[in-house]
Type 4 fimbrial biogenesis protein PilX N-terminal domain-containing protein (Candidatus Vogelbacteria bacterium RIFOXYD1_FULL_46_19), 165 residues
Amino acid sequence: MTTIRKKQSGFVILYAVLVAGVISIGGILLANIIVKQLMLSSVGKESRLAYYAANAGDECARFGNAQYAFGGFQVDLNDDLVYEQGDIGLLTCGTAVSGPTNVAPGVIGFEFEVESVGGNQGATVRALLSESNPLVVEATGYNIKDPKHPRRVEIVIVRSSSSGD
C-alpha cells in the first residue's frame, strides 16, 4: 500500500504565530483597560480634593463676612443705603485679597485665594456684597495649582447667604 504524504511543513509555525498574536493583542487590550480604570479612579479622588478646597474657600468667605471683614451696606442719616468698609485684615484664612471693588451699582466685590497646608490644591474665591443679598460666594476649588495641567479638576460652589449666616 502506498501512502501519500502531504507536505505540511510550516503550518505549525503559522498556528503558533497566530495564537501568540491573539494572546498578545488580548494582553495589550487588557492592559489598556486597566490603565483607564486606574485613571478614572484617581479622578474621583482628585475631584474630592477640589470640592474640599472649594468648600474651604466658601467657609473662609462666610467667616470673613461674620467677622465683618468685607463691610456691609448701612443706611446713613439721609436714609440712603451706603457701603461701609470693613476690616479686611480680619480675613485670616485667605491670601492675596483684592477689593473692595465696585462690580456694579450697589454691588461690592472681593477676590482672594485659599491654599491648602502642604498640598497642591486650593481655591479662588469671589465674594459679592449687594444691597439686596448681603453675601454671594463663588468658590472655585482645584486639585492642582497649574491651570494648564491636563489632570487639573475644578469644582465651583456658588452660595448665597444672609448677613446672619
Q: What stands out?
A: The longest strand covers residues 95-104. The two ends are 104 Å apart (CA to CA).
